[in-house]
Every structure is written in C-alpha cells, then in structure tokens.
Design goal:
Blueprint lengths: L5 H5 L6 E6 L10 E6 L12 E7 L5 E2 L11 H7 L9 E12 L8 E10 L2 E8 L2 E11 L2 E4 L4 E2 L12 E11 L3 E4 L2 E4 L1 E2 L9 E10 L4 E9 L3
Antiparallel strand pairs: 1-2, 2-11, 3-9, 3-15, 4-14, 5-6, 5-11, 6-7, 7-8, 8-9, 10-11, 12-13, 15-16
Length: 230
C-alpha cells in the first residue's frame, strides 16, 4: 500500500501534516512513540472533512506487548458513568492534546482544545478526550500485528442527535500524542510495550505510515521515516 500510495503521500490535502517517530534509533530496544497530526482535508465549500478511520503501520518487525502495563477494559458507557477513574492510573500509557472544530454548520467554530489520555488495553489501547478532568469522548485503537486502526464515532453538536448529525458535528483539527517507552518484569520475563525491529535497513531508517479516511471516503496517506543505526 505504501508503494501504491507514494504519489498520494506527496499530494495530501494542503495544510495537513502527519509526523510519526520512534524515540530510539537502536534495533531490538524498547521504544516510545511521538505522533503529531494536523487535519485540513476540506470539501469544496471549505468545510472540514470529519475523520472516519485511521490506519497506522509500524516498521516490519516491530513488536508490541500489552503486558508491559496494566490494562483497562472500560468503554464509553463506563467513562460516562465513572469519569476518568473508569481506568486505573496504572493503565495510562500516553498523553497529549487535541483540537476540534465544527463542520456541517454555517460558520466553522473553534478550535476547541482537549486533553488526551491513552490507556492500554489487551487488544490495543483507548484514546480518551477530556477537559479539566471531565470526560468527553473516546476512540478505541485496535492492534493487528504491526498495524493499528481506529474508527472515531461522529460527535454531533446536538448531543441527542446521531450520525449523520443534521446540525453538524465536531471534526478533529489536530492531535499530538506521546507514548513513552515502557517495560516491566513479570515472573522473570521482561515485557516491553513497543520494541523496535531487530535490524536496521541499509537506508538507516524505519518506515511508518498513517492513512486517514474521511466521511466522503477520500483519504490522505502519510509516510514517515524514523532514523535507526546499524
């Protein structure tokens, strides 16, 4: 898919950016992840396109181990009932910031800022958006080998409405997330949340990609290179 989308990576929506970087250059080593994204895909009328799916691909050979941290099985209903305490603090694996604007409205409002907390799950992770400690929404990130994907639910401006949100919805404008390197030993065995591939290519860089698919089924494809040493 990266090869087929190489041209698309150059012709992404103007103003959109996506940077993914591993925090170590050493092969076979626990690593963290830094992600920074700006969403600016727009319809011909200037309205921001809502994100419907994100697919992240890590370098071949990247390993993930959910046992590196405690995990949380809470979902949207749990957070609405119990707030940010729905997940134990020990299951927090990342943090960041996000902004959103309105789309499908007469005038674009925002950006509105939110706090981002990432909790580990047995099947991936959950990204939780909050403001001043109050839960707002969440998105599940499913892990499938070296790929991770998420399908954010539409957040209608009118709370009682559901997709397709006749009075408009909130669309992501930016997202920054930091997931520090994490390891722990259980019964004499070390578990690392993310481990870099065991080898570094001759190019001395690992390749990551992120594909954003929007409500009109158009997409942006970004290819990133994280340096490594042989």
């Amino acid at each position: 898919m990266i090869a087929a989308g190489a041209g698309t990576a150059v012709a992404t929506s103007p103003g959109s950016t996506d940077e993914l970087r591993l925090t170590t250059t050493k092969p076979g080593t626990p690593t963290g992840l830094v992600a920074s994204e700006v969403f600016n895909a727009r319809y011909p009328n200037g309205q921001l396109k809502p994100l419907r799916h994100s697919l992240v691909g890590f370098p071949k050979g990247t390993a993930f181990d959910a046992q590196a941290a405690d995990t949380c099985a809470a979902g949207d209903s749990d957070f609405r009932a119990r707030g940010m305490s729905a997940c134990p603090a020990s299951s927090k694996i990342g943090y960041g910031h996000a902004t959103a604007v309105t789309t499908g409205t007469l005038v674009e409002l925002g950006p509105f800022g939110f706090d981002v907390t990432v909790f580990g799950r047995k099947d991936g992770s959950i990204i939780v958006f909050s403001s001043h400690g109050l839960y707002l929404s969440s998105a599940l990130v499913r892990a499938d080998g070296r790929f991770q994907h998420t399908s954010p639910r539409p957040n209608c401006i009118v709370v009682v409405e559901q997709s397709p949100c006749p009075h408009g919805e909130f669309a992501p404008r930016s997202l920054t997330v930091t997931i520090p390197a994490r390891s722990r030993v259980i019964h004499g065995r070390r578990h690392s949340l993310i481990t870099t591939p065991r080898t570094c290519p001759r190019t001395r860089r690992w390749t990551l990609f992120d594909k954003h698919t929007f409500a009109d089924r158009s997409f942006d494809l970004f290819v990133n290179h994280s340096p490594c040493r042989r």
